[in-house]
Amino acid sequence: MNAFELPDHAASARAAAIAASDASPAETPSTPSVLFVDQSGQPGGAELCLLPLAARCVSHSEVLLLSDGPFRARLEALGVRVQVSSHARVVAIRRDNLRLGWLKAIPGIIGQIRVIAARARRFDVLFLNTQKALVLGALGKPLHRRPVVWHVHDVMTRDHFGPLQLQIVRWLARHAIDQFVANSSATANALIALTGLPADAVTVIHNGVDASAFTPVDTGDLRALRRRLGLPETAWLAGLFGRLAPWKGQHVAIAALPRLPHVHLVLVGAALFGEDAYAHALERQAEQLGVRERVHFAGLRDDIPAWMTAMNLILHTSTEPEPFGRVIIEGMAAARPVVAAAAGGMLEIVRHRQNGWLVQPGDADALVEAIETLRVMPELAQRLADQGCADVRADFSLERYLEQMTRVIHHAKRQD
Questions:
Q1: Residues 183, 49: contact at Cβ < 8 Å?
Q2: What SS3 state is found at 232?
């Protein structure tokens, strides 16, 4: 198998003025107040990045959600003030019916823009965390006149978005955003290519994880943990975490199972954004391949550290470039070997056969080879797991992420 290397694209895309600052956020004369805006009430990847940041800024921030859901309760449990402003037609807009969806939702869009602008005027900085939040928050800038930070969680290419949405993002990026934060160099490079922004206009801040939340367990405790989670106690488990969506590639993992007779696949996640048909297709695929008894659909779970720890291996099977790959650093933090698709932000996390195993996206044959090799070579699996855990603690800590994000917010306020 060929080694995988990080492409030498132009610019790691960092804002030099921010990185060079010697003053910590706590040393600045005043702490900016922040309005965070997120479109989803469901705790997806972008929301899990926002959760600790909003908690860090809890005394001087508020989160405005554009739809209600369990994410609200998770924020409020941390003491975060939350407002919900939801409009059914705006919530219903999907990438695959963007033009028609926006036209139908024009009254709701105007209302949402006004709501966000009115709330934003009470704060020093407006922080936009998702695509709909970007559009609605940035279009209202003439009304609120606040510095705008956009946290980019997506690779802005035709692989993920239609031409109209990319045109909207290009215009807003050039005219309404003051600070850009990308979750990987892959994300930053795509944004720069789309917008023509200079490389130093985008700050790359990798996601962080609290490694202390992932507690190792011995064999006896592992069986008890699996029993509690309703998983087979002695099976060899490969866990695939994330929402059920075609580009996340759960079908690739299921396709590999007939050639992995000793492996069970655990899918932790659900169809969140109108992708229920894909979830049903996965069940049919497992039935047709005769592996349904070895595919466990666990649904959405809050206790991700426990579920990660219960696995023998953590998988990532996205068929398109992943913007970052939070589940992989979580798997590493749990001291589990990881197998990931070699594209996008994954190339900034996983070093092939050093701290994990890389396969070509969509390649079920390569996935079979990787899983079976690590199953029959536990010493290699343990070595990769140990190195991955060490790398996460060194390079992807939650504290580092929060410190860097807080600097961006302070910098945005100083530029106002």
A1: yes
A2: coil
- Using alpha carbons, list the distances in angstroms from residue 391 to 102, 259, 354, 381, 385: 43, 32, 10, 15, 10
Residues 244 and 202 in one domain: no
188/284 same-domain check: no
Helices within 230-340 (DSSP H only): 250-256, 276-288, 304-309, 326-333
Residues 397 and 207: beta-carbon distance below 8 Å: no
Question: What is the maximum span of the chain, computed from C-alpha positions, in angstroms?
Answer: 64
Do 185 and 91 lie in a common domain?
Answer: yes
Same domain, 376 and 411: no
Give how far the C-alpha of residue 70 lies from the chain's centroid of Cα atoms, to the nearest Å.
17
Specify whether 198 is located in the same domain as 280: no
Give residue 240's Cα distance to chain centre: 14
CA of residue 121 relative to chain centroid, distance: 29
Amino acid at 200: D
Residue 56 and residue 198 in one domain: yes
DSSP 36-87: EEES-SS--HHHHHHHHHHHHTGGGEEEEESS-SHHHHHHHHTT--EEE---
User: Which CATH number does the domain housing residue 131 bear?
Assistant: 3.40.50.2000
Quote helix, strand, coil % in the chain, to nearest 5: 50, 15, 35
Asked whether 154 and 186 are in contact (CB, 8 A), the reply is: no
Q: How far is the C-alpha of 142 from the C-alpha of 150, rounded, in Å?
A: 17
pTM metric for this prediction: 0.88
103-142, pLDDT tens digit by residue? 666 777 888 999 999 999 999 999 999 999 999 999 999 9
pLDDT over 90 percentage in the chain: 79
Q: What is the pLDDT of residues 48-72, one digit of tens each?
A: 999 999 999 999 999 999 999 999 9
Residue 43 sits in the same domain as residue 138: yes
Print the domain residue range for 236.
Answer: 211-395
Kindly state whether residues 307 and 349 are assigned to the same domain. yes
